[in-house]
Amino acid sequence: MEHYIVSARKYRPDTFTTVVGQPSITSTLKNAIRSNHLAHAYLFCGPRGVGKTTSARIFAKTINCLNLTADTEPCQQCESCISFGENRSYNIHELDAASNNSVEDIRSLVDKVRIPPQIGKYSVYIIDEVHMLSSQAFNAFLKTLEEPPAHAIFILATTEKQKIIPTILSRCQIYDFNRISITDIEKHLLEVAGKEKVIIEAEALNVIAQKADGAMRDALSIFDQVVSFCGDTVTYQDTIANLNVLDYDYYFKLTEGFIKGDVSGNLMIFNEILSKGFNAHHFIIGLSQHFRDLLISRDAVTLPLLEVGGEIKERYRKQASQCSEDFLTAALILASDCDIQYKSSSNQRFLVELALIRSAQLIEQLKKKQLTNQ
After folding, report:
1. Which of 40, 48, 235, 262 could hold 257 in an S-S bridge, CB 3.0 to 4.6 Å?
2. What is the pTM of this model?
3. 64-97 as b/e, with b when 16 or more CB fall inside 10 Å?
4. What is the DSSP letter of 346?
């Protein structure tokens, strides 16, 4: 039986070109290599799953490559690249600061720094989750970080830059990694699906990308989970069922009810949502997002801010044309207020129901206000 490798590992980038969603950072690093302006210490910071450690590994491999390509990418064929790919490189050292955060661990690292590389120009030390180092460990690291041997380069990675002491920050070139956009995640997942011979609907890709919250590693893990559930054909309905995501259709039906002033119908839809096990707080957050998406769908200028695709985008445009801007703004305020008050409410279901009732009365109130002003 063939050994299964999860997509997050199988499709982990191994060149700068394959890094998703960080073009400015990869361009800067390639330019530094091309012009031989390499700093002795770098700090890669940003949310989880956006490519910090991966970029550090690619950077370390590239600066030690013996035959760089014309595009400043590793050749993947020299001894340095091959040894790195087989996890037997003596030039690149990785330390997990979450479990190696004591003074002794850092002193051991400092001792290793003195040893020059066997192959290539540089010994690269990648320290992941560097904010987990103790204050004593940081102090033990300072002198080496400030004046390392010419062959040593440090790449520190962290999700919490604010926890790193200023004396460390001042000695590093700092690169802030962004959350990966939904469009970039969808595009990459579509490529992975093609390689895995999986047919997946555009709406299903969008749900996975939104659920990943800007983290490519999370997106690939969710993709694997959905494929395990659905098989070689992934549909939107199967995806929302597996991930326990509320269908867009509920929000469209509720908005139709608000336009018609159908209080009882909307209360029954909300009851159906609760009976399927969905959290009422998640529901009201989703309703706020729906009103926001309808509001931006009214104007062609703001339409690119709508991060949905396929048929759902067309449904938004159609329903937005049926809603006035005043109604959507007032409904958004009601849903937002309900979200703020939810945790402190002693009767949370009633609070959400009240927001739905008041939303269904909005159009009538706006009409009366208009007549009064005339």
Report:
1. 262
2. 0.81
3. bbeebeeebbbeeebebbebbeeeebebbbbbeb
4. S
Question: For residue range 117-128, what is the model confidence (pLDDT) as tens digits?
Answer: 777 688 888 888
Instruction: State which of 176, 204, 233 marks the end of a domain.
Output: 176
Q: 189 and 138 in one domain?
A: no
Within-domain flag for 2 = no
Cα(187)–Cα(145) distance, rounded to whole angstroms? 39
- Listed residue (287, 369, 285, 283) closest to 326, CA to CA: 369
Ramachandran area for residue 174 (φ above 0: left; ψ -120 to 50: alpha; else beta): beta
Shortest CA distance to 52 belongs to which of 166, 148, 179, 184?
A: 179
pLDDT in tens, 293-332: 999 888 888 877 887 776 788 888 888 888 888 899 999 9
* Same structural domain, 102 and 200: no
Q: Which residues contact 91 (CB under 8 A, 6 or more apart)?
A: 60, 64, 80, 83, 84, 117, 118, 119, 120, 122, 123, 124
What residues form DSSP beta bridges with 128?
96
Query: Residue type for 254, please?
Result: L
- Is 174 buried (19+), middle (13-18) or exposed (0-12) by CB count in 10 A? middle
Instruction: Output DSSP code: residue 162.
Output: G
Q: How far apart are CA 303 and CA 321, in angstroms?
A: 13
Cβ 122 vs Cβ 150: under 8 Å: no
Q: Could you give the C-alpha distances from 9 to 6, 218, 230, 250, in angstroms and in order?
A: 6, 12, 21, 36
Give the domain range for residue 226.
182-243
Q: How far apart are CA 352 and CA 345, in angstroms?
A: 10
